[in-house]
Amino acid sequence: MALIIKDWEVIDDPQVEVHTGGDSPHDMTLPGICEGYLLKRRKWPLKGWHKRYFVLEAGILRYSKHQHDVSEHHGSLDVSLAVMSINKKSNRIDLDAGDILYHMKVIAKSHELFYIWVTKLQAHRLFKKNEAAHVQSGFLQTLSVAGLAQRNGDLPAAVRNSSRGPPSVADSAAEYFDASDDVLCGSSSEVSDESGLSEGISATRKYRASISKTPNSVVPKSTGRRTTLPAPCPDNSHVGLMAILYNNIGKDLARVSMPAALNEPVNLLQRLCEELEYSELLDTANNTSDPYQRMVYIAAFAISGYSTATFRNRYKPFNPVLGETYECIREDRSFRIISEQVCHHPPISACHAESENFSFWQDQRWKNKFWGKSLEILPTGMVNVTLQRYGDHYEWNKVVTCIHNVLSQQRYLEHYGEVTIRNLKSNTCTCKITFVKSRYWGSDTNKNEVQGTVLDQSGSVIHRFGGLWHEGIFCDTLPTPKCVWKPNPQPKDDVLYYGFSTFAMELNELPPELKPLLPPTDSRLRPDQRLLEEGKVEESDRKKDDLEEFQRERRKELSKQGEEHVPRFFKKAKDSCGRDVWLTNETYWKLRENPGFANTENIILW
Ligand SMILES: CC(C)CCC[C@@H](C)[C@H]1CC[C@H]2[C@@H]3CC=C4C[C@@H](O)CC[C@]4(C)[C@H]3CC[C@]12C
Description:
This protein is an alpha+beta fold. It folds into two domains: 32-131, Pleckstrin-homology domain (PH domain)/Phosphotyrosine-binding domain (PTB) (PH-domain like), CATH 2.30.29.30; 195-592, Beta Barrel (Porin), CATH 2.40.160. The chain is 24% helix and 27% strand. It has helices spanning 111-143, 157-160, 169-180, 197-213, 242-247, 268-274, 280-286, 291-304, 502-507, 527-533, 537-560, 588-593; strands at residues 4-5, 8-11, 34-42, 48-57, 60-64, 75-78, 83-87, 92-96, 101-105, 263-267, 316-318, 325-330, 335-343, 348-355, 358-370, 375-380, 383-387, 393-396, 400-404, 412-423, 429-435, 449-456, 461-468, 472-475, 482-485, 570-574, 580-584. Strands 1-2-7-8-9-3-4-5-6 form a nine-stranded antiparallel β-sheet, covered by helices on one side. A six-stranded antiparallel beta barrel has the order 15-16-19-20-18-17. Strand 22 and strand 23 (461-468) form a beta hairpin. The longest helix is centred in the first third of the chain and has 33 residues, at 111-143. The two termini are 43 Å apart. Bound molecules: cholesterol. One of its GO terms (biological process) is bile acid biosynthetic process. Residues 212-232, 532-559 are annotated as: Disordered. Belongs to the OSBP family. InterPro entries: OSBP_sf, Oxysterol-bd, Oxysterol-bd_CS, PH-like_dom_sf, PH_8, PH_domain.
């Protein structure tokens, strides 16, 4: 656990990782150089903050007065020997190596720049440690009897990777750019004590008691769909994540290739469909005449999409390849959805669902921030729902999802931040939902708290609701106070099956009668994902490599011809605020019916 003293956080020492993964492509490479002006605190003779030029190279941090005199640097420090603490609020970094102590601060109020320095420092610290371990293991090896020499796979990653050159400065500049373009900043979600926090806690306790008294929804009658997966999930506890993550700092997680053993047999397109697991809340909203009450159901729906996180922290979804599609028709829930990977850099997945009660669409993309122990996922883009009967168009943002202890088996997910739901067709009411960031001193009981209010035009509270995103939401201001949403119970043996809900199990099912109707780009036909689902991990891994290579080839070919990939079922547009959005072009279902995808020209992805 990171030690936290009044906004200061001691960053855990990077653990040198011993690889067992043989020829994994994710070995440690020399991290890129990081340089620029920072403020450095000085005690004597001129007390205060002074602007200095810092250069971080191969694990050594040097500084000088100006950029042009870096050669005559004033001081230098091996960053792997220093304890690093950071203060996210004031953008400060302290490096304490006992005899040498650097207090540094990012000049501009740029949280981005601060983040880049912190992650780069971590990468360099790990690199330097690895290097030290290399020297030490080399030393041990010389001592050991020749025949007992260590297997290649047991050596620290850096040892085997020495042949690969350091990334160029241009590379690392690209990486910075990647990390810094239009990112949302910081975590604004910590509820301050003045805002009635203790009140909130006791309210949540009350809500919680009421939720637990509410019986679970009746298990739906058999839908004829499968209730389990063909094979249990592989054990992936041996896969070393440290090198993968440190080497990809600043990059989109969705663009980083990882071994198949880390994956779950659904992809991000299918996970968009999974957000409709509780679509009956939208049906209810469409049958509720009171606009304020309707908003409560929309809010419950917005929260329900986050509940799978409780059980889904051990595996990551497959990244769809550009042009991949996924359809799902649910007669039992009377909706159908189509999604497509519309952009590769940055990765964007777009979806559109429709039913007699509602439409639902979003394009999902996000940024990552890797803080050493945790990884924050900052989604951009809005979720949209329209209700057929009232013509309402609701729009809301998503909150931050944080993967805590990302490198260890104690991994867990947390959501925090504020959601504002607006009805673009009427300003009768808005809704504010707070996903409360858990306080580090708190026990488990203050985890996953959600509080919300529905406000009228003048800002008065009309409804209040709350609870926990993994247990349910209670609203005590409805004519009959009630639990508006409660997650379905997990199926038996869910731990063996990736923590999937029944709904998730059904996503990748491929009934024989469906197969001829699907375009060849449908995720259900993706071979590596199918192999993983069947428990053939190694074959899946190989297929995954081929498939990714094939995607790169296709991209090269296209750019050689000066062309750009054009999504097939979605078009780019601007929303009311001028943001780029991807909307359906309404061709999918028409083509499916006539002439049918077997009779159209399709791109070949695998
Ligand atoms: C490194 C690996 C093995 C650890 C597991 C990573 C898992 C937990 C990560 C990888 C990608 C992540 C998803 C990426 C994007 C979103 C959209 C966001 O609006 C809600 C969270 C959600 C749905 C994330 C949930 C957590 C997630 C599934």
